[in-house]
């Protein structure tokens, strides 16, 4: 009886040891290949987005976003969830011909996702206005390209 108890205890402990740190759902059995990337590649995604602004075409800007994504824009109180809602926002935003420049950034990279957050300044060619803001972009690798899954932008709360 003692041998059976030791065997059962050994099996239970082995099961616990091999299951540490993994979820108990079906994702645990799924293996995911991580896209190799660098801070430079992630930083270039802002440049890609900024170049799409220069086209003046809201559809080209929205092409940077995953279908399931959220835009929390600077000059609108309405979260934009659908491609049509994002296009509507950018249609108005692009009227003043914005161009962004990163002032400070922090990039974090994970398996098929990345975060780029910091401070940026927009120059609006049509009005000459400069607007400083805070931003965060989260990106997901979709197997072909990096797409924005969330974009938050807000004006600086106080003058620097």
Task: Write a brief structural summary.
About 30% of the residues lie in helices and about 35% in strands. The protein is of the alpha+beta class and about 160 residues long. A hairpin with a 2-residue loop joins strand 2 and strand 3 (about 115-125).
Low-confidence stretches: 1-26
Q: How many structurally independent domains? A: 1
How would you spell out the order of helices and strands? HHHEHEEEE
Query: In angstroms, what is the radius of gyration?
Result: 23 Å
Shape: globular
Structure description:
The chain is of the alpha+beta class and 160 residues long. The protein has one domain: Nuclear Transport Factor 2, Chain: A, CATH 3.10.450. The protein contains 4 helices and 5 strands. The chain has a 5-stranded mixed sheet, with helices on one face. A hairpin with a 4-residue loop joins β4 and β5. The chain is globular and about 50 Å long.
What are the salient characteristics of this protein?
160 residues; alpha+beta; Nuclear Transport Factor 2, Chain: A; five-stranded mixed sheet; 4 helices; 31% helix; disordered N terminus
Give the helix/strand layout.
Blueprint: H1 2-19, H2 39-54, H3 58-62, E1 65-72, H4 83-93, E2 98-110, E3 113-124, E4 130-141, E5 146-155
Parallel strand pairs: 1-5
Antiparallel strand pairs: 2-3, 3-4, 4-5
